[in-house]
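WARN no homologs supplied; continuing
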Amino acid sequence: MNFKLPKLNYAYDALEPNIDARTMEIHHSKHHNGYTNNLNNAISGTPLEGKNIEEICQSENLSGAVRNNGGGYFNHCLFWNIMSPNGGGEPSNQIGDAISNGFGSFENFKTEFSKAAATRFGSGWAWLCVKDGGLCVCSTPNQDNPIMKEGCGGTPILCLDVWEHAYYLNYQNRRPDYINAFFNVINWEKVNQLYLEAL
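OK structure emitted
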């Protein structure tokens, strides 16, 4: 199968002022598009051609090109999907209950997730995953993700890109400010849907 760059459900400027339009445009049309094209090239003519992105990410002995670009493709697809111009606030549905039960409170979850994002050295991602019926927070380097063999083994339902290209135009070296702004655009309805599907 040929992977295609997914269309966003919102305009590039829809997440402002939390994530600026120029960053969104470059991030989606250049970075994610690059991962998509490079992934197609990397799997062409190999046994991975024709598999879905989850099967590719979970495969053994991935080459560097497939690992980096397959991860980049998967991670960004989820990232765009769990943000919304009408996002933010505290979830009040099943995911809200699960967060309260798993972390003690939404604020405790926010602190743990923010720490995972802020302390990831260099480039990478922070994740909220469903694992063994509960929730866990983890982080991964580069374009790795939790469903890869070295991941936490959970099903990711929320993620934050902490590569500098995700925030540097607007936030420069202030990664904590970017992390805090991200909570204003989380689409908790979508996260709740992914949570229920992962149970």
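Residues 124 and 162 are 6 Å apart (CA to CA).
OK
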